[in-house]
Amino acid sequence: MIGLNAWAWAQGCAMCRAALESSAEGRLVASSFRHGILMMLVLPYVLFGIFGFFIYRAYRKRSKQRQQNPYSYHA
């Protein structure tokens, strides 16, 4: 039951941070963790943006073709 308490997990995180920041090696590891977290946060948005851009470009291209030749059928 002690593993399910939120205060126990929060205390462990603060202790890990204090232990990592107290030495030179720990600061390097903490910096690496920060960079990794940023990559995990930013990368999905970048990929979603690129995917959305290509869909938007294809939609605009198809829309332009329909305006130029409105009576032809393109599936």
Detailed description of the structure:
The protein has one domain (2-68). The protein is rod-shaped and about 70 Å long. The longest helix is centred in the middle third of the chain and has 45 residues, at 24-68. Helices cover 81% and strands 0% of the residues. It starts with 5 loop residues before the first helix and ends in a 7-residue tail after the last helix. The model has no long low-confidence stretch (mean pLDDT 79). Helix 1 (6-21) crosses helix 2 (24-68). It is built from two helices and no strands.
Q: Summed up, what is this model?
A:
It is built from 2 helices and no strands. With 75 residues, it is an all-alpha fold.
Largest sheet: none
The global form is rod-shaped
CA(first)-CA(last) distance: 60 Å
What structural category characterises the helix and strand content? mainly alpha
Mean pLDDT: 79
How many structurally independent domains? 1
Oligomer: single chain
What is the string of helix and strand elements? HH
As residue ranges, the low-confidence spans are none
* Percentage beta strand: under 5%
Q: If you compute it from the alpha carbons, what radius of gyration comes out, rounded to the nearest whole angstrom?
A: 25 Å
